[in-house]
């Protein structure tokens, strides 16, 4: 059973959070943001500056600190569930519940992960675990992925509690650990398997989609994510007897593996489409000049148009990534001595599988592409179940589009399928359709997530915060 930390444990952190908030807003009156914004900034700062890397951090500490802020806002201990799975003391999760008035109305779930990718201070321009505001951006590891949305969810619930708001339907929030580390413990997966009733909801809102601004800072498109490609690693391996390097032979494990990878490089999986990708390219066609825009319009009208798909794929690797299954070599390992023929050579091939295709179907396709029975192709650990995209119903899309048009008039609100993977892959298969939606806009350079000097636009974050707060209320009262 999980460990649940209850009132006595969290009281200490409540005091800590209050002190932290006071320190954060202790600035000259002329420099202070509005009170509710100051509280949000304090939450965001504390969460970002709590190291939650797998190697040296603690999601449990971050979860405790966010629980303390909710307690300070008036949440009773009975509605805060700090869940630490056995054997994972630093990988804790927080589930918070704001009860609704109508017990017959299914809840909505606000999902975000609080773990972050590793960050080496020597490589960064700034300390990755100190939130810095500079030139219109917040910089830090997790400033975008995914502590921006996690902080917004905590802030949203805290504001609602302080305002005495009672939603018609229950609002739940799950802050989880482990999304960033393949093969490690994953909190969303654990909750789906062991605390399904606690997180039960009609649907969930998650990371996975934002908006794009042009060079002048004008919003040009806002996305809602409905579905994502499935990440899967395969091992290519060649084994042979080897020998002394002074007696070379043509049969060489490294050469044979290299031949297989060259065949992989030359192969493109068949083009596919679904409701989200067709809708995305139809909208992007109106925003994209030249042959790429024309090809998008043609593809949206006829997904069998191979020439249009090829033009789109060649124009942008991100567009190519949502047109079909993709597989790429990411790691190599071979040989055992500088003066010996290799006895073993391995490569990791990372595939992103288009919804509707199974892991085994892709493995078999790779075998056909390589066409060499001396290259063993093995499926490595599978992250989750493969699931179809959640439905783009008006019940979910309608309020989000309506509010977006009010806040950003004329900006297209467009579905998208993600080429990456989020914790939606653990919730959608168990009956909680999960959508990526943030209201965070970024320029073409993006947030540098997973890379150096990760960033989040200050205006983008504050605008997204307003959008998500109002949207949650629309859903909760709808």
Notable features of this structure?
alpha/beta; Aminopeptidase; Alpha-Beta Plaits; 2 domains; four-stranded mixed beta sheet; 37% helix; globular; disordered N terminus
Describe the structure.
This protein has 478 residues and is of the alpha/beta class. The chain folds into two domains: 3-208 and 422-477, 3-Layer(aba) Sandwich (Aminopeptidase); 229-379, Alpha-Beta Plaits (2-Layer Sandwich), CATH 3.30.70.360. It has helices spanning 7-25, 35-48, 59-72, 147-162, 187-194, 196-199, 253-266, 275-285, 290-301, 306-315, 317-321, 359-370, 394-407, 424-427, 458-477, and strands at 3-5, 80-84, 93-98, 108-113, 132-134, 137-139, 171-176, 203-206, 211-213, 219-228, 230-239, 243-244, 326-334, 340-341, 344-353, 376-379, 413-418, 434-436, 441-442, 455-457. The strands form five sheets. Strands 1-2-3-7-4-8-18 form a seven-stranded mixed sheet. It has a four-stranded mixed sheet with strand order 17-10-9-19. It has a four-stranded antiparallel sheet with strand order 13-15-11-16, with helices on one face. A hairpin with a 2-residue loop joins strand 5 (132-134) and strand 6. Helix 3 packs parallel to helix 4 (147-162). The longest helix is centred in the last third of the chain and has 20 residues, at 458-477. It is globular and about 80 Å long. It starts with a strand and ends with a helix.
Under CATH at level 1, the class of the largest domain stands as: Alpha Beta
The name of the CATH architecture of the largest domain is 3-Layer(aba) Sandwich
What distance lies between the first and last C-alpha atoms, to the nearest angstrom?
Answer: 35 Å
Cα gyration radius (Å): 24 Å
- Here the CATH topology of the largest domain equals Aminopeptidase
CATH homology-level superfamily of the largest domain: Zn peptidases
What characteristic shape results from the CA principal axes? globular
Q: How would you classify the helix and strand content by structural class?
A: alpha/beta
Q: Quick check: average pLDDT?
A: 92
Oligomer: single chain
Given the structure, what is the number of helices? 15
Question: Helicity level, as a percent range?
Answer: 25-40%
Please state how the strands of the largest beta sheet are arranged side by side: 1-2-3-7-4-8-18
Low-confidence stretches: 1-30
How many domain modules?
2
Largest sheet: 7 strands, mixed
SS elements, strand count: 20
Q: Hey, roughly how much beta strand do the residues contain? A: 15-25%
